[in-house]
Amino acid sequence: MRDTSFPYDRFLGEFRELEHGRPDGPALRESVRDQASPDEEKLVRYLRSGSALAVTGSQVHDVLSNGRELIGALELHTDGEWFWYSDLAHYVEHYHLVLDAAFVDRARTRHWAPPVLSTADLIRIGDTLDALFDAETSDLRNLAS
């Protein structure tokens, strides 16, 4: 099998309890903290300011409130290096989730302002992700045959 480089380690918030999470993702309930981190407000603003790479018509609800609270439409956001779903900001803000330290450090070095990505940038990023994903799934199909 060819070594693929799909950047799963650059996706944040793919908790296994979420419909858009990964079955092998971290447990959302185990990620909840009692207190906010010192930079939480800035981090939430950064997450909400990322460029939308993909927008769906799907609505997401807060699974920790038994689905009673509507968060909003599901979008995939990016800063050009990291990827996260739009509901992540909600969970960080309300449940004080701790995120990958490398991501937080990168946001901090950008002074909590993600870069503004052009349409061409977003198309290039999307095409790259599609190609990496296609290569990985092709390799997995070859293994199965």
Order of SSEs, N→C? EHHEEEHHH
Distance between the termini: 12 Å
Our Rg estimate from Cα atoms comes to: 16 Å
> How many helices in DSSP terms?
5
- Given the C-alpha coordinates, what overall shape results? globular
Give the total of beta strands.
4
Major sheet details: 4 strands, mixed
Major sheet: order of its strands? 1-4-3-2
Q: Could you tell me the strand content as a percent range?
A: 15-25%
Provide the helix percentage. Answer: 25-40%
Structural classification: alpha+beta
| Residue-averaged pLDDT | 89
Low-confidence stretches: none
Model description:
The chain is α+β, with helices and mostly antiparallel strands. Helices cover 39% and strands 17% of the residues. It has five helices and four strands; from the N terminus they run E-H-H-E-E-E-H-H-H. It has helices at residues 28-31, 40-49, 88-95, 101-109, 119-144, and strands at 11-12, 51-61, 70-78, 83-85. Strands 1-4-3-2 form a four-stranded mixed beta sheet. Helix 2 (40-49) packs antiparallel against helix 3. The chain is globular. The chain starts with 10 loop residues before the first strand and ends with a helix.
Give the key terms.
globular; 4 strands; 145 residues
Topology:
Elements: E1 11-12, H1 28-31, H2 40-49, E2 51-61, E3 70-78, E4 83-85, H3 88-95, H4 101-109, H5 119-144
Parallel strand pairs: 1-4
Antiparallel strand pairs: 2-3, 3-4
Helix pairs in contact: 2-3
